[in-house]
Amino acid sequence: MIALKCENVYKVFGKDADKATRMLQQGASPEELPEGSVVAVNNVSLEIKAGEIFVVMGLSGSGKSTLLRTLNALGPATGGKIWVDGEEITAANDEEIRRIRAEKMAMVFQHFGLLPHRTVIENAAYPLEIRGIDKAEREERALESLKTCNLLGWENKYPDQLSGGMQQRVGIARALTADSPILLMDEAFSALDPLIRREMQELLLEIQDQKRRTIVFITHDLNEAMYLGDRIAVMRHGKVDQIGTAEEILTNPANEYIEKFISDVDRSRVITAGSVMVPPPVRLYTTDGPNLVLRKLSSVDDEAGWVVNPGSRRLAGLLYSKDIIAAMRGPEPPRTVRDLVRTDYMAASPETPVAELVTALAETAIRVPVVDEHERLLGVVPRIQILRALSDRDDFEDETIEPAQPAADEIQAVPDTVPYPAESADATEVLAGRRARREAARTSAEFHEPLETPSETILRKGRRQGVASGPLGSATGALMEKAAKKENRRRTRDSFEGKEDRN
């Protein structure tokens, strides 16, 4: 459902605004307009969905705040059409405009817009007072809004007794008390200190989870737009250059201006686990036998894998090959791996920012699982995918580290059947052979300095180009270091095994 719609909207300031608007509609450029004409909004068309946070962002003078004021006719458009919840506000008379504003729209201003001679609860209840609702009901509803905004206990204070952040909370509470389906926020957090601003952003998202309002949010802060917006419109010189999700704008900018505009954004806070996840390299099930699991892990040169319940695909946990070996050496080797699965693990949702995965992936080579709301395994996030996403390099795919393939006899040595005590030694021998070859490869590496690997090339270029700079730069660097070291070990091991085969 569409809550707000703009169709070829113009807003021109000046004595000949109507004439200038007609000239723009006929194809004239802003430079050809009558002297004194200022084009604030130039042929903007967009649709805002019900229940979404739609962020309009741009530099000062881009026309974003003027566009917002055309939506509720505080600054009526000089051309085009605007619909509010199906009603064309650009064709409405003054009385109808006031009704639409009172019933369907509320506004939160940058500098709070509170009445200084009224208490907090009186400010919060003001929209209902205008509608003629009795005092008891409006104060009851205002108290509920103040509770949502964490302001209980302050209802009898005056605005000048509150901090800036608290005053802004009162402004939001006032908008919530109006119970309007559409909320217009004009740089509502721009006047706040960074820490208070982040608190208010988090509060807004919490309120949105509860209330599901349609919010049009104006900002010049790119990180704020990326953090809050379900979709973002980027404006320049009164026009909309691009509309899309944060990830769409970040990964596929429409033009050079937007590409430069987003150059300093913290990509790790925007790119999500769902966009970088890949299918698990192997499928492990709780009903698999130990030998079968060892064979699967060996086929992709992994020491561990994620196990799911057959049928439901719900994630059961993490299984290490070393745990299987230890169990098979015991007096009663298990027939399935169900009881060997570790359940203390970190999982991500598709919406989890990759910033929250960097530390975990820097400390271990185990891929992070991605699950849905029913705990079903959707995919995994390996370190190489994080590097590719943060580096924004098109050729990164060619430098992906592929796992070494096991020898054919190594796979055949582990049967697909459920293990019995007599078979335990076979699997143990397979794993022991792998460990011996790796140890020999490490010993060989001490006497042979390998050539620069693709991963080391990534690392060297990343340091020079400042890949993933910012607060997560060191963690990303650690990922690169580990990727380079792993590639060195693989190359040395392959070289050693090649010599062994020739001998």
UniProtKB/TrEMBL annotation:
The terms describing its cellular component in GO are: membrane
Q: Which SMART domains match?
A: AAA, CBS
> Which residue intervals define the domain CBS in the entry?
341-396
- Record InterPro entries: AAA+_ATPase, ABC_osmolyte_uptake_ATP-bind, ABC_transporter-like_ATP-bd, ABC_transporter-like_CS, CBS_dom, CBS_dom_sf, Doublecortin_dom, Gly-betaine_transp_ATP-bd
Superkingdom assignment:
Bacteria
GO biological processes: amino acid transport; glycine betaine transport; intracellular signal transduction; response to osmotic stress
Q: Specify the Doublecortin domain's residue ranges.
A: 230-321
For this chain, one GO molecular function annotation is: ATP binding
Stretch list, region Disordered: 436-503
**ABC transporter domain segment(s):** 4-262
| Compositional bias of kind Basic and acidic residues | 438-451, 493-503
Going by the UniProt record, its keywords in alphabetical order are:
Amino-acid transport, ATP-binding, CBS domain, Nucleotide-binding, Transport
Q: Which family does it belong to?
A: Belongs to the ABC transporter superfamily.
Q: What is the recorded name of this protein?
A: Glycine betaine/proline transport system ATP-binding protein
Biological classification of the source: Bacteria, Bacillati, Actinomycetota, Actinomycetes, Actinomycetales
